[in-house]
Fold each of these.
Amino acid sequence: MSPTPAKRPGGGRPPSQRPSKPCAHCGLPFTWRKKWERDWDQVKYCSDRCRAAAKRDRP
Ligand SMILES: [Zn+2]
């Protein structure tokens, strides 16, 4: 019997298996975060700053 693994952040997934995608504004890849677990499909920007900047570009 093996010991129970410690609970980690990231929905139980190791960091290397978390999904990532490029930011729709700056193009830099960003990695899944716990706060996006419910709407990862809708997340398009790496940060609030990029989201605000993109909104400003095309209202
Ligand atoms: Zn960005």
Note: Residues 10 and 34 are 6 Å apart (CA to CA).
Amino acid sequence: MKADRGSCSRFFDRPRRLRAYVDDSPFVARRPELSRASDADREAAFFGWASRVVDEQASVLAFAELLGHLGAIAAPLAALETVHGLLGDELRHVRLCAEVASWFGDLDSLEIDVEDLWLPPTDEPRASRALEIVVRELVVGEAESLIALRAYRDATSDPAVREAYAILLYDEARHASAGRNLEAVLRASFEDAAFEPFLSRRDDVAEADRRHHRAVHRAGATGGPGRAFGVSIFAHEIPALPSTAPPTASSSHPCSGSCDPIPTDTLLP
Ligand SMILES: [Fe+2]
Ligand SMILES: [Fe+2]
């Protein structure tokens, strides 16, 4: 990444010696209809999709950390294969979001910093940390992301952007489902004590995270420009959580903003 810092061409470069190992097919064949778009709509779409590159890269690093922990504790191979698949999806999402952003502006005019997006470090045991990532990033994070992304997809009128959303939503729905199944497989594979200290606070943290994600997604839905291109909705388009829900423990979540439709229930999506 260092050599390319400041340039966004890194998202698209395919050096010849590596080309054989990656899928080079275009994600979305069509392009958006921009002839009637206002400058404000284009600009909002450009920055909105460029900012999603950062969120997707953060998912890459979170799942890379998870894969390392699962390997180190000798988790079932199917769990490693599943996380490996999710990691690949998130890498494709990085490139897809960069591609969509490039429809609306010159990506090389932006500096998108995708370095050091690791989750905050911890000294907790690997199995506990693995379960924490599964619950917070997949079971809760991906499910909440799915709700927000569906609202943006539904608000989008441009066919090319809807096609990009179809790809994202298909994958993110599988990710939320994979999270629930990963949690079940891990819990069945190790003694409860292996997941401490996270296991004791699991439900409180999950509820606090869910409320945090929902509040952030609703706060960011301000009805600005770019609705046709998938970057603007109104807060009421994301359902509020019931105010009568049980009280939650204090918990901070590292996400800085956003982080979804085919429910599947298999470990290997
Ligand atoms: Fe993603
Ligand atoms: Fe995801």
Note: The domain at 40-237 is CATH 1.20.1260 (Ferritin).
